[in-house]
Amino acid sequence: MPGAPSGQVQQPATGRQAVPAAPPARAGINKKNTGAGAEPNPIAVADAAVPFRPVNSPPVLNLCLLDAGSREEGEWFRLRDRRFVIGRAEGDLVLPHDNGLSGRHAELVRRTHNDGYRFFLVDLQSTNGSFVRVAKLLLRPGQELLIGGRRYLFDGGKDSESSPKPTDDDDGTPNATISWQSKTSPATNSALPALVELTADGTNVRRIPFDSAEIRIGCDPSQCNAIISGDPFVSSLHAIVTPGGQNRWQIRNANALNGLWLRVSEMPLDGNAEFQLGEQRFLVRPQR
């Protein structure tokens, strides 16, 4: 048309304003493909919904039999039944290669708790006990601990209680069992509280007396005043014992590679928890 720049087409005047294109529909269906037999084409829009999950079924517990030397990798199991038994000869998970396990060693139990559910580790009166990994705890006479590859019993001294009471510790930790089979039990022969090493035959028993305000346990003499030698699983600084008030003592893990473990008869498994049966270590993770 005359007057139009080269390469452009001038639209005729109509007296109307141009109408902008309609914005895309915000509905969840694309209307261009809604003929018979056609599937709706969802459009990516913000969605406040969460993925579907059962709301009336009990939760599932994820259990991992850890590989040697690992805290993350291993063989995973999903526990849907109310009880799951682990043992050397019978149960839902049988591990015949570990002679430290009893025939029926321990079980994981789901129980109702408040308005929901809670999982517990329950020892089935095993010979060698069930242990859970702990960060710290107040010690009671008769409790057993794993430090490195050795067992220790807390002896509260002559002025302490002769045996643990069937109540929880101040921090909610149930009392430990004391039924590990040794031919002799360490006798209290000192007024000082101490950790006493346990052996299967009761010989060469060693005491770690609580004779200072802070007992630093490990294999490095430059960092510790209670030295454990000859155990490759003990860290340079493994655990620290300090007064806990009212003639009590507290022990805590000093970020040791192999951790600090408490023998229990029963323990709730909240969040990510670790436990040991025989020489097998396990990790549990509740499924969200």
Structure commentary:
This protein has 288 residues and is mostly beta strands. Helices cover 0% and strands 35% of the residues. The protein is built from no helices and 20 strands. It has strands at residues 61-66, 74-79, 83-87, 93-94, 106-113, 116-123, 130-134, 136-138, 144-147, 150-155, 194-198, 207-209, 215-218, 226-227, 239-245, 248-253, 260-264, 266-268, 273-277, 280-286. It is elongated, with a radius of gyration of 32 Å. The relative contact order is 0.17.
Strand and helix layout:
Blueprint: E1 61-66, E2 74-79, E3 83-87, E4 93-94, E5 106-113, E6 116-123, E7 130-134, E8 136-138, E9 144-147, E10 150-155, E11 194-198, E12 207-209, E13 215-218, E14 226-227, E15 239-245, E16 248-253, E17 260-264, E18 266-268, E19 273-277, E20 280-286
Parallel strand pairs: 3-4, 13-14
Antiparallel strand pairs: 1-2, 1-20, 3-5, 5-6, 6-18, 7-17, 7-19, 8-16, 9-10, 9-17, 10-11, 11-12, 13-15, 15-16, 19-20
* Fraction of residues in H or I helices: under 10%
Quaternary organization: single chain
Walk across the major sheet and give the strand order.
Answer: 2-1-20-19-7-17-9-10-11-12
| H-E string | EEEEEEEEEEEEEEEEEEEE
Major sheet attributes: 10 strands, antiparallel
Radius of gyration: 32 Å
Which outline best applies? elongated
Low-confidence stretches: 12-16, 162-185
Helix count from the secondary structure assignment? 0
What separation lies between the terminal Cα atoms?
A: 71 Å
